[in-house]
Amino acid sequence: MSVSFGGDEGGVNLTNFVCTSHHTADIISTVEFNHSGELLATGDKGGRVVIFQQETENKSQPQCRSEYNVYSTFQSHEPEFDYLKSLEIEEKINKIRWLPQKNAAQFLLSTNDKTIKLWKISERDKRPEGYNLKEEDGRYRDASTITTLRVPVFRPMDLMVEASPRRVFANAHTYHINSISVNSDNETYLSADDLRINLWHLEITDRSFNIVDIKPANMEELTEVITAAEFHPHQCNTFVYSSSKGTIRLCDMRASALCDKHSKLFEEPEDPSNRSFFSEIISSISDVKFSHNGRYMMTRDYLSVKIWDLNMENRPVETYQVHEYLRSKLCSLYENDCIFDKFECCWNGNDSVVMTGSYNNFFRMLDRTQRRDVTLEASRESCKPRQVLKPRRVCAGGKRKKDEISVDSLDFNKKILHTAWHPQENIIAVATTNNLYIFQEKVN
Amino acid sequence: MEYKVEAHRIMSISLGKIYNSRIQRGGIKLHKNLLVSLVLRSARQVYLSDYYSGACLNAQSEREGNEWDIMDSEREKFPPSATECDRAESPEEPQQSKQPEASDKEREYRENDDEVKSDQADCTSTLQQEQNPNPSLDSVGNVSPPETINEPKESPSDSSVAERQSTPVANGESHQAPKTHVCSNRKRSAEESESGDSPQKRTKVASSNSKEDEEGEEMDTSNVSNLITIFGSSFSGLLSKDSAKPEAEAEDSGQICCDQMLKNLNPWSTAIVAF
């Protein structure tokens, strides 16, 4: 069975998917490809960052199967304790964002709830040998034994990947940081918490500018919080932020220093027939992503994915149901806290397909051009050699067909919150709780 | 009836989540607690509005006496043994004039009571038209003096003014305000309870409020404390009603309702008091 996505060129062929999986020590909390797609970074609940690198078996044949292998592992954040508030600060990595590459080294920003760090990842494959005053192991030589002088030379060594923290951006957020986004100017970035968005310069750590503040004077009047924020991919003055009420605000930093007044407000009126106790929760937006071409943005709420045209504020241009069969289960999902899960979403390289996760280790690919969608599963079975990725179907009610899975059999502990798509190729990274699956389309 | 049970269940679950969020690692999540408090508010509104609209519709039926008793047991702020007949005349203006600067939540809280009062007025007039006074209600009705109504109203205004002064001071975490809430709730619960379990109720309300202190800014403390008071008053209302009303049918439906609450209340009170 072959399902083709995204048109004839650049489409996603779901047969012959090659899958590799990496078991992780801790729950994965973020996944991000760098700008070239060669590197894939994951952050986990224990504050660690693991970077995978694409290895091409045969560089002359780029369509050959390439694997992602561990390139570097480092501890980015440690648990901290705020003594003033008697609060523990989790070390869980909430987001990782790569900087565009400027030289041989790679840079990424990683953040937990309170502190953002800029990491430099560099390779070392040579080391100096032949010092006069030191032995090779570093011990100092006895001066009396030195009779000749030599010039140290660089000799090749086993590749070593070093990660070093270059900047620490701390103490700027009272509430929990949910997003970071690097500006297209490659000099600034924003960080967003529940009530405020700050603008930083990558070189300056001791100050940041507050550009959005939605904290009410009286906290009892609080009705919404910021849930995600992102800079426009090309326009360095534009950013968006989403709210727990299902609205997205687009702001222009040229308009004023404090961007509390939005330039555009994107909001779809609520469908009154779907009103329930949980309407407000499921309308809360968990992720917002600009398309690569900068003309659209995508939002993810609990049950659906919406594509918005930046020129049309009153409704999205496309709406896709991710798992509508959950609408009747909202009360149970509220009880077991699943209704608060924050699913992310991502675009493919040419903005023709979007992808998001669901429960039972299912993830969904939604083709915008062909108006088709498929549900796939990230599991051990799908990683067997020569395994064809089989589309899955969920039976909402009534008679369950063969090969369908009923809603009540879904495992809500197996959730895919984080997915990423290679910027150019049809390679996707899907994170289950403890495993990172990398699916790659194999072109014959 | 099913809506009431469902709404009540959701309220209990929501309170549990708020309670658990205190001990979660990483501090209180503002977003999640905001959403939970919204659900809590929705459930409470359904719980109360559905209840009263149902009661008014049935006011002309034979079971109207029973409905009155259920209404009494569910009433938040008023003494459970009091009746609405005497309070029909209690004007809404004094309430509103007392809190010209009340915060939104306080206003909403009082609006609910205003709705309740208007419902009462309608139901009372219907009752009087029917010329079917319940002797037990009349006798009980003379118990509550008008002052009982007004005094609880003053404390929220005090607390609301104190809150507004204190919130700019703290960095979003109004430590002073919840304390004032505690005081006001103590006053309210002292006014309401005419049975012997008022100290217990006060403890419960105070502990629940102190539990909410650490929630800080986002907690709708007035609503939650109302819920605690509902549970508390329903329990004591049942006790005081045993002596007041002779009708057996009232006790059935009232008891079922209160039993459900009691089942939930006992582990709650243990948990809250322990905290």
UniProtKB/TrEMBL annotation, chain A:
Q: What domain of life?
A: Eukaryota
Q: State any GO CC term.
A: protein phosphatase type 2A complex
GO MF, one example: protein phosphatase regulator activity
Q: Gene3D superfamilies recorded for this chain? A: YVTN repeat-like/Quinoprotein amine dehydrogenase
Keywords (alphabetical) are: Repeat, WD repeat
Pfam annotation, one family: WD40
Q: How does it assemble?
A: PP2A consists of a common heterodimeric core enzyme, composed of a 36 kDa catalytic subunit (subunit C) and a 65 kDa constant regulatory subunit (PR65 or subunit A), that associates with a variety of regulatory subunits.
Annotated family: Belongs to the phosphatase 2A regulatory subunit B family.
Record protein name field: Serine/threonine-protein phosphatase 2A 55 kDa regulatory subunit B
Which organism does this sequence originate in?
Answer: Culter alburnus (Topmouth culter)
Automatic annotation (TrEMBL), chain B:
Q: Which portions of the sequence form the region Disordered?
A: 76-224
Q: Which Pfam families match?
A: IER
Polar residues composition bias: which ranges?
A: 121-147, 157-169
- Transmembrane portions of the chain: none
Q: Where is the composition biased (Basic and acidic residues)?
A: 76-90, 101-120
| InterPro entries the record matches | IER
Q: Please, which domain of life does this record's source organism belong to?
A: Eukaryota
The record's similarity note reads:
Belongs to the IER family.
The identity of this protein, by name, is Immediate early response 5
Please name the source species: Culter alburnus (Topmouth culter)
